[in-house]
Design goal:
Blueprint: E1 2-5, H1 22-27, E2 32-37, H2 57-70, E3 74-77, H3 100-106, E4 115-121, H4 129-143, E5 147-152, H5 157-162, H6 170-189, E6 194-197, E7 202-206, E8 218-222, H7 226-235, E9 238-241, H8 249-269, E10 275-278, E11 280-284, H9 288-300, H10 304-316, H11 329-332, E12 336-340, H12 342-354, E13 359-362, H13 367-384
Parallel strand pairs: 1-6, 2-3, 2-13, 3-4, 4-5, 5-8, 8-9, 9-10, 10-13, 11-12
Antiparallel strand pairs: 6-7
Helix pairs in contact: 2-13, 4-6, 6-7, 7-8, 8-12, 12-13
Length: 404
């Protein structure tokens, strides 16, 4: 039996290092493509303009099967804890939501290739790293190495209160997260009973099976602060970044090169390489005028009550990443806005690549038709532009119908 005092995290040894792993294949793409699933009502847009977007599992399963057939690399969902009426307004924005861990994991049974990233607030409530290590090992087995963990720490005091806990200070949360993931990593890599001692965890004769196929599951973190970046470059494969300058594309593209360089350099200092993903909301139509009209209609139908609730909660958060996002930019949602014709969307994605973004985690206003149009009109242009390798031949076809 081995006795271990952590930290003992071997961050340099990643699933991406193993040819044949799903993460290795995803990292081979010039620009990774992901879909941010709308597993909460209202998705990302605080607008009452009619649309099909739905939080229910069957809808999100259709989206996932479609992006897998289109060759996308990953999907994941938002984790949140809101009270009755959500953020309020006519929409009761995000009152209805699926648990991101359960919903994303369930997709393993109906997919074959795409990476499935589960978001978990590991510091809330009674989570124990031994539980999550066992759950993760099981999901790694079910998904053939396609499951990953987006480990988040929680930045909203009312969420902590739901679990009867006082909110931990910002930088301390990342220290606790590093401790938690180091325990996970040690359990996933060991083929022996372990005694593990950390400031907050004491495990005796702990053992987890089966062994993950590629060292460990994929690890993801969303951050923008100095403490968060220090955590992410040590303990993650993918870093989910935000625009430091708000959602307007021109502002974002000016600020992003320095931000992404900071992350790359922090990783290089400890001998690692991580990839960055950013979340654009795509508004695309055959012409720029049509795309602008679509955007303007979405904004014109803003649910002001829900917007007040959402912006109010953001103001009470101690998260650093969204400080420059303006109230009106929250109506469409997403971390930045890409608006235009298919050709213009490709140019904007090229600009994001040049700014140091390794991938995009896409959202749409009306997910089914907007995604279908993206697959039909934009994706072939991304291949022509060298941003995507052609998708592998699917075993199932896209099931969404386009209505540009």
């Amino acid at each position: 039996m081995n006795s271990i005092v952590l930290p003992a995290f071997d961050g340099a040894s990643s699933p991406a290092d193993i040819p044949g792993s799903p993460l290795h294949a995803a990292f081979a793409q010039p620009l990774m493509l992901g879909l941010f699933l709308p597993i909460q009502n209202g998705g990302w847009s605080i607008s009452t303009l009619p649309r099909s977007t739905d939080w229910r599992f069957d809808y999100n399963a259709r989206l996932t099967r479609t992006v897998e057939a289109l060759g996308f690399d990953l999907v994941f969902g938002l984790a949140q804890w809101l009270g009755k009426d959500g953020h309020g307004g006519t929409l009761k924005y995000r009152e209805q939501s699926l648990d991101a861990f359960i919903a994303t994991s369930a997709l393993a049974a109906i997919t074959e290739r795409i990476l499935l990233i589960s978001t978990v607030h590991v510091l809330y409530g009674p989570w124990h790293p031994l539980h999550l290590a066992k759950f993760g090992a099981t999901l790694d087995h079910i998904s053939n190495g396609r499951w990953g963990l987006n480990l988040v720490t929680g930045h909203v005091e009312t969420e902590w209160a739901m679990f009867g806990q006082p909110m931990i200070a910002h930088d301390e949360r990342y220290e606790r997260a590093a401790e938690f993931v180091s325990v996970l990593d040690t359990l996933w890599r060991s083929n022996a009973n372990l005694n593990i001692r950390t400031p907050h965890w004491n495990l005796h004769d702990a053992f987890v099976s089966p062994r993950p196929r590629y060292h460990r599951p994929v690890l993801v973190n969303a951050t923008g602060s100095a403490a968060g970046i220090e955590y992410a470059v040590r303990h993650s494969d993918l870093v989910f970044i935000t625009s430091p300058a708000g959602a307007h594309f021109d502002d974002a593209i000016e600020a992003l090169p320095a931000h992404t360089a900071r992350i790359r350099e922090a990783a290089q200092r400890i001998g690692r390489r991580v990839r960055t993903l950013i979340n654009p909301t795509i508004v695309c139509r055959p012409t720029e005028r049509e795309a602008r009209d679509y955007h303007d209609a979405i904004v014109a139908h803003a649910d002001e009550g829900a917007l007040d609730g959402f912006v109010g909660q953001a103001a009470r958060s101690d998260a650093k990443a969204w400080a420059k996002h303006k109230r009106e930019q929250r109506i469409l949602g997403g971390n930045l806005h890409l608006i235009g014709s298919p050709e213009q969307i490709v140019e904007q994605l090229l600009a994001l690549k040049r700014a140091g973004c390794d991938g995009v985690q896409l959202t749409f206003f009306d997910f089914e038709p907007d995604l279908a149009y993206f697959g039909e009109a934009v994706l072939p242009l991304l291949v022509e532009a060298g941003l995507r390798h052609p998708a592998p031949a699917p075993t199932h076809q896209p099931i969404l119908q386009t209505t540009p």
